[in-house]
């Protein structure tokens, strides 16, 4: 829970009452007994702690199918030589199966909402619906696709907005400033304003991208957002990564007229040998920083507990300051800041009356989580994804005592396995895009 | 497995035959069926992979009792204000219970051997024996204890060497060059030579320690090891951490006449905002680098899978080179290099005939470990401690299908919980030692 100043607060011997998918009450279990409410279902979670469902603020869920396919490579080879050639083989069925596998992994790890940025997003929306997860979805496009890319992204966003009983929200999803030209970004900003949609895109993924942008255009990727109007979108812009956000970008972000959020996926940055997102500087100007995994082809998993711990650890190391990014700050990033980054700051991210009932029960009886001297530290630095016992979204139980109720993993893995040889074939010599070559 | 050039090798549909605590055969399961050997016990591990038991090359197991007690602090406050005051309360029973909890955590996470450096080590030896783990143990001492500290460390090492059916090996364990003076270190080196014992100590834990040592004594901590004879100990020296090993230390380590190993615990360094162990430079001069967790009061867990992944990730980031520290290199650190670092390079660290049967079975059927495009990457970057199904040491099953057979966690946690208020009391204003003040 959070108090009025948004500080993390823990309640012992607590009960959470859910009614119609919404949290109705959080407080001492004795109060619930006194009120004597009849319940359709009771979950006894003694020895466990209830936390807000985790939010994966930037993912490419279907890339679970490509976990481990491109290892120990610099980003440009990872994209140009492996991932983008393989993605030219992607079929809607591959996306569906990869996303289903990812949803199983996320539910098992206590993720209740994921922001996804990929292709064939109709299938992703269908899988999100069937899996029971909450999702914030955008159909990715490049300028190389012509105006049709942008139009498809808009059409997707309008068609699926509010789907799955409101669990699905949508965004326009240009790939990045280095693959989508300024005119296309400006047109996207105009569409976003016209239709009340947010925008989700990769920005300044690495410091090298910022340096390239400066060398070629004289502006940083964040300055490109500003001049194309993307920082004035009323429904907000979600910046994925931002490890290349530099000093001069801070005043630009500070004067943004629309809400800006950043998603940090620290495991990807370590793997590529990059620096990390400047979380402290962003916090200093009031930009919420949510936690993310990125796709499993770079990460290699969709584990938000790991993202939370790594954010705390890597930020301490990056700043050379062990007092920065305490466990409570990490929990704030994982809850309210993540909810705000994906535009759901008033609906999820806290266990409080009126919020959607996205709740995760975490077992603390394992030897690796005992004793508990400091519950925030236990949650950030000791708990692992496998300690999640029960995952609830909108009041619906998606996993109970580690048993997945909405996804058949074995069948998904079986069919995916049959399709992998065709999916990973690179003999055609094609790729869907070129990395690090600016458009135009 | 490893081939003749020590490259990691995987065998599909393999069987491992164990006889008298030793690996008798590793190879195709069909070969075992042909030989028709009768077995006292068979473990069916379809869908799982057998790997050498993991080795925790530097720990303070009993500090599991202090997990989360000193969070988000710089090292000097962590030591002086919290940990060393608390450790002045330590009783043998606290050490026993903390170690038992740690052993449970390690067995559940596929650790089969731990190198421990702490106090009241008789109790640690007893718990290692009862838990079934392999252990490399040293009784820590400071020069502030007078010659008795060193003598007790020797007495412990001689009394327990070869105990628990050979599972326990021992070392002399001075704390560190900044808490043990040169005369005491030289006397330790002489005792090590006389008795054929190795030495295990903290060296250059942080860059600040190296800078302090240079400012005060004109030499680095590694140069202190050289001038006190610790680099000439025939049974070897195990250097914990070494994040402050600098360029000028490399030729010193290279001309060492005894075996030198380094234990790296990357999670601790991130948490303290330190730089990390220069693994690439150490590999360049042939020094084996093993993986470690350090104590759970800094880490906050004893998870070698996490140490392995973090070593790969942090080394890539530290070198700015995503090609360095591949998954196969990480596995080599986790297996043979770790075995060598703790002086057991000919007995454990590989699944090969003649080696002790320290074997871990890892389940790969979870959604987060599927599909498997690259088994080395799956093991390093996707597998988590909770995927370990079965842990075997010296041919004895210590955990079967996640059920611990040698440790009662609930009872350990219960009794420890009763003792914690007295253990963490700091009102006495004492501490066992002063951090960062050189002796003499």
TrEMBL record, chains A, B:
GO molecular function terms attached to this record: hydrolase activity, acting on carbon-nitrogen (but not peptide) bonds
Gene3D superfamilies hit by this protein: Metal-dependent hydrolases, Urease, subunit C, domain 1
Alphabetic keyword roster: Hydrolase
InterPro entries per the UniProt record, alphabetical: Amidohydro-rel, Metal-dep_hydrolase_composite, Metal_Hydrolase, MTA/SAH_deaminase
Every Amidohydrolase-related domain range: 50-397
Protein's recorded name: Hydrolase
Organism name: Streptomyces poonensis
């Amino acid at each position: 829970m959070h108090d009025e100043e948004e500080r993390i607060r823990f309640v012992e011997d607590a009960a959470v009452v859910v009614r119609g998918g919404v949290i109705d009450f959080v407080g001492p279990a004795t109060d619930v007994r006194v009120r004597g409410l009849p319940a359709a279902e009771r979950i006894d979670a003694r020895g466990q702690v209830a936390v807000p469902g985790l939010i994966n603020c930037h993912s490419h869920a279907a890339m679970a199918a490509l976990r481990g396919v491109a290892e120990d490579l610099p980003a440009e080879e990872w994209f140009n030589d492996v991932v983008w050639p393989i993605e030219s083989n992607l079929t809607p069925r591959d996306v569906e199966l990869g996303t289903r596998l990812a949803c199983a992994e996320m539910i098992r790890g206590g993720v209740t909402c994921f922001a996804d940025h990929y292709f064939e997003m109709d299938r992703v929306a269908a899988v999100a619906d069937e899996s029971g997860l909450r999702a914030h979805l955008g159909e990715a496009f490049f300028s190389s696709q012509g105006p049709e890319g942008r139009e498809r992204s808009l059409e997707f966003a309008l068609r699926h907005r509010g789907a799955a009983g409101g669990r699905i929200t949508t965004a326009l999803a240009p790939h990045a400033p280095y693959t989508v030209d300024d005119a296309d970004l400006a047109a996207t900003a105009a569409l976003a304003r016209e239709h009340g949609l947010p925008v989700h895109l990769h920005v300044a993924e690495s410091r090298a991208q910022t340096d390239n942008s400066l060398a070629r255009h004289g502006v940083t990727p964040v300055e490109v957002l500003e001049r194309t109007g993307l920082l004035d979108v009323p429904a907000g812009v979600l910046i994925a990564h931002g490890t290349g956000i530099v000093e001069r970008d801070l005043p630009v972000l500070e004067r943004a007229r629309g809400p800006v959020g950043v998603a940090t996926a620290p495991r990807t940055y370590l793997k590529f040998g990059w620096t990390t997102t400047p979380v402290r500087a962003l916090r200093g100007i009031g930009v919420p920083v949510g936690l993310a995994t990125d796709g499993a082809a770079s990460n290699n998993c969709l584990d938000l507990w790991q993202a939370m711990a790594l954010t705390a650890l890597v930020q301490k190391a990056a700043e050379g300051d062990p007092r920065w990014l305490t466990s409570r700050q990490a929990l704030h990033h994982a809850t309210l800041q993540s909810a705000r980054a994906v535009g759901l700051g008033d609906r999820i991210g806290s266990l409080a009356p009126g919020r959607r009932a996205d709740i995760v029960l975490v077992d603390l009886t394992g030897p690796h989580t005992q004793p508990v001297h400091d519950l925030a530290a236990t949650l950030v630095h000791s708990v692992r994804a496998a300690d999640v016992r029960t995952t609830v979204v909108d009041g619906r139980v998606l996993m109970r005592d580690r048993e997945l109720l909405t996804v058949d993993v074995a069948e998904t893995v079986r069919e995916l396995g049959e399709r992998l040889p065709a999916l990973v074939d690179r003999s055609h010599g094609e790729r869907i895009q070129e990395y690090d070559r600016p458009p135009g």
